[in-house]
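Q: I have 1119 residues here and want to know how they pack in 3D. Can you give me a structure?
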Amino acid sequence: MLLLPCLLWADGNRKQFRLQSPDSTGITFFNRLIETEDFNYARQFFVYLGGGVAVGDVNGDKLPDLFFTGMQVPNALYINKGNWKFENVSKSAGFPDTAAICFTPSFIDIDGDNDLDLYVCRFNEPNHLYINDGTGIFTEKAKEMGLAFEGKSVQAVFFDYDHDNDLDCYIAQNGFTAGGYAQIDGYSDKLFRNDGGFFVDVSKQAGIEDDRYALSVSLGDINNDGWTDIFVANDFEARDLLYVNNKNGTFTDIAPAKLRHTSHFSMGSDIADINNDGWMDILSVDMMPHEHERRMTQMTIPKVFSPYFDSTSMTRNVLQLNCGDLNFCDIGYLSGIAETDWSWSSWIADLDNDGLQDMCIVNGINRDAIDMDLASYAVKKKTDKFMWLINSMPKTRLRNYMFRNKGNLQFQDISDAWGFSEKLSTNGAIYADLDNDGDLDVLLNNIDSTMAVYRNYVAENKSGSFVKIALKGPGKNTKGLGAKIEVITKDSKGKEARHFREMHVNRGFLSCTEPIIHVGLGNAVAIKEINIYWPGNVKQQIQKAQINTQLNIEYVAGKESPQYIKTKPLFEMLKPEASLNYVHKENQYDDFYQQRLLPHRLSINGPAIAAGDVNADGLTDLVIGGSHEGKTMLFLRNANGTFSEKTQSAFAVDSRCEDQGIILFDSDSDGDLDCYVSSGGNETVQEDRELFQDRLYINDGSGNFTKAVHSFAPPLDTISSSCIVGGDVDGDGDIDLFVGGRNVPGQYPEIPQSIILRNDVTSLVDITKEKAPELEKIGMITSALWTDADNDDDLDLWVVGEWMAPRLFINNNGYLAESTIAKTELEGLSGQYHSIAAADIDNDGDMDYVLGNLGKNTRYKPTRQEPIELYAKDYDENGSMDLIMTYFNFGKKYPVRMRAPLYAQIPTLTRRFQTYHQYGSATFEDIFGADLMGTKQLKAYDYETMWLENRGGEHFVKHALPIETQFSPVYGILCEDFNADGAMDIMTIGNFNGPDPEMFRYDNSLGCVMLGNGAGEFTALPSLQSGIVVPKDGRSMVMMKHDQQSCDIIMGVNSQAAQAYRLTLPKGAAIQNGKPGGSLMVQLKNGKKQKKEFPFGSGYYSQSPGIFILPKDAKVLQK
């Protein structure tokens, strides 16, 4: 047993939350757990699910009362007597004093008589429904009302799904377990429709029939149509469910299509608006520890390329940011809440009244039931007795997590500072204003310890204002469940703020709060208006309500009013039949089979796109790269804006090559565009040297290509290339090339060769040693850019790649030497870059640069002091390179990868670190020693996508781009004045489904459009306003003219159909032509000058023709 020590109650009297003594409150509920041979985790997984908690005023005295459930102790009702005193009245209130396995309690007015009844989920026994007589005396009537469901009930939630003004019931079921193993299918959840006070099972006809292992259910209107939708968090292999209400009595699970990944062992969940944008976001929690040793001893990873592995299900907390139109982006790692160990109840509420909703994730498991050392031993010992195993499991107590919402989608772990430092094994948890003082207190139901009751002192400290809202809904939905509330406030300067809530009482896991909405208002001094959207979007408006009060609002019949009005987006999506009908097909290849410890895949880089007029008809055509065994393709543009493929036999012959970068340029000075395609990838080995040979195809002027007889000196059959960019390096009037080396297949991280090719019309000559010797082994290059970085009218060269900082090479009469100034200033920006593009962002007449990096939505958080590092050495001297990626955890450096894959690569480690705990506690130095002799070492310090401000004199200053660009790795970049206001804007696309098996995938972006203000600041447009939605692996991106007033954006997407969008310019703006490879200056209406360049290749594997948007009243100064 664990009695919370008195020291804890006295400690932290300056904390925001203070733990209250059971002796003081009278709350002595103790959720005892006694394990026996027949009742233990090895036989039944559910024994550690713990007990629940519900809050509601059951006797009409305006004070919230409490109900607790347990598995081996009787449930208990505590009446709130005021002044933080509670009394256990369970027996007199009509509750039995016998114990049963009980989970979620729910206070709801089931019969519509304006008092709170109680529904209790019971496992393997009929659920109980207690009807309140209005004074707090209850009578059990589940069978009489059709809700005595017997099964694997974990949680029941109540809502009016069919809008007939009474409450229906959804019951989540977990599965059956025996002998420590879960059934594959589990049990189907149940939906009961309320037919005049009797509940009827309508699950099958409503579309609720998936057999899963549900642990929690959350309700919310995720598409703002006024109808409540359902999120189900499922344990084990069963994927989570997101049921959208079809408004006809049925539901459709959209999770596979719209939630690009979910948590794996999903437990608690909640639906709430974390960023005050009016769209409900979804939180589901898992069991990934943040502390390194626990991660290495409690977790394992499946085989990524196993046919049984669902890579869309990942072991970590997931925070699905609702972007509207049923599009979601997981920002769990970005927001800082992804790893909280064995997590149960999780909910979102404003705990400090600052106007932003915070987050609670409670944590704990009674014993370390999945300890890998213990599991390994148990497998070897065959027995039908389990208590020896249970007693071998260490008792575990972990701290709970409180995250303060800092705004900008960021949360801060503030647990200790707020007073939540106790180590417990908590399951059910909820918030409520127990003393009616305007702030939210917290209750925790813990295994083998007393209830923890935390009093919030925000109100006493007069920190932030609030409003509380109680609803009187229509018909028998007396508490207005399903209503959405918008509160609009003003501060002392007149600035408005909006806050959104939905009336649902079941929250988190096994928990239920009172039917009163609490809204923290921060520094607001007045409420401008409150809008209530009753079920069905019936709008009711309250004007000028008082702050720091509770409002009681009764339903008034009205008309349906939309919660938001959809406006025309900036970009219009084009259907394939109206633009480009092309699907990229990637060949299947397991990069990790060749090198087990690769930090990421190297074989899913394409497709590249180059745009230009290849047949001299005045229209822009496309050349698109193919994968290994997929040919390069030419698409000619038609007058109506569509594209038609023109077959090229020369391309088909080379289909075994893996296309990387592509550019169109006039290689032979005959006035038409020829095509250079670089070869690379990771599939082939050095024996297939011909597959690495880059290719040059000569155009006959009509769009017919033949393979060049031009010679490459020397042959380029040893380079796995990446990007190709062109520019007149030597000033002779033709286009020379830089070819970036990406990798040496099978020998990562060996640095490949990069080269400069001089165009001699009849040959391409490698001049790297002569003209740019520092470039030969510069790094693993992903993108490059010819640009006039120092404003001296010749082309300099930027190169970016992985495990390197951006590198600038200054052109001095055709000789390229690295800028020592830029190298010194940018050294700390070493990262994982994929792209670079140029734009005059601050309208000062020189080129600034946008760099696409890995982003911040990742486990790995490098800094200059604590970098992410890669060590490469043959540690076991068996002839193969061993790759050890490291990270810092609480100040110590550890290997990233788990024990099994590392030991498979270096089997000799099993002799030194024989157990998971020995390995988990070992630092990098403990395992591999401090001597780095003979070790290749690479470092990354910064993963932010950014722009570099050109200060002149080869000086550059980093500026982070908006948080929305940090959701995923950025590949494609376009810089243009999309809204024609005289300020450069930025569009990015990305995602990467190929990181190491610890991360599984980076698939959290929809693409991003950022509008600039001409002074270096950007505002990201929501996808509903931009119109850009690229949920898969966006790669290349080009812009081409459609007509004088509009242009099209074409996007290449790995393993998916290409996407196309059209931008229509405002009146007075126009599409203008620039000279490819050249530059010009635009004078804006405000007198500022904006420089523009038109490079042969920019961004990621992309080449746009030389066009630009000229704003109204702007003029071109020079061409």
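Q: Anything worth noting?
A: The radius of gyration is 31 Å. Confidence is low (pLDDT under 50) at residues 1-11, 179-183, 303-309.
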